[in-house]
Amino acid sequence: MQFRDxxxxxxxxxxxxxNEKGLTLLLYKNARxxxxxxxxxxxxxxxxxxxxxxxxxxYCGVSIWDEKKQQWVTKWDAxxxxxxxxxxxxxxxSFKRACFNIGIGRELYTAPFIWIPAERYKTELKNGxxxxxxxxxxxxxxxxxxRIIGLQIENQNNQEVYLLKPPTSKS
Length: 171
Fold this sequence. Notes:
By secondary structure, the protein is an alpha+beta fold. The chain is built from two helices and eleven strands; from the N terminus they run ββαβββαββββββ.
């Protein structure tokens, strides 16, 4: 089963690390994107998910109906707790990881190191700490063979803050 590449609007960003010199951004997808792609590709009746607890960890299995084999094919993975809703976050994370296992969004594992210098974003002082004021989004992405080769990130004012240009082809 081949799943389509993620679209820019389906990719979210979170700060990995921030200091006085700049910050790093990490690319991720949420569980709703996985559900939408599964529905779009397979139809709502041809996939299912199951959650189990094993040794205190939540695992999710995503099953896809294989017409040729006439059976369900399942991929499993464990999740980790989130900072907000512990159980829900762990269940959602296990689902997203199981979806990576079947190929949805796997291109995110090829993301470049994304460094944004401090002069390209705004912060504000809150409770004695510098807090990021800007919001970022993926405005464009180029993927070939499930590898990210081009990426553009902009702030909320649609100003470019990061650009990875795809390589030019040689004749």
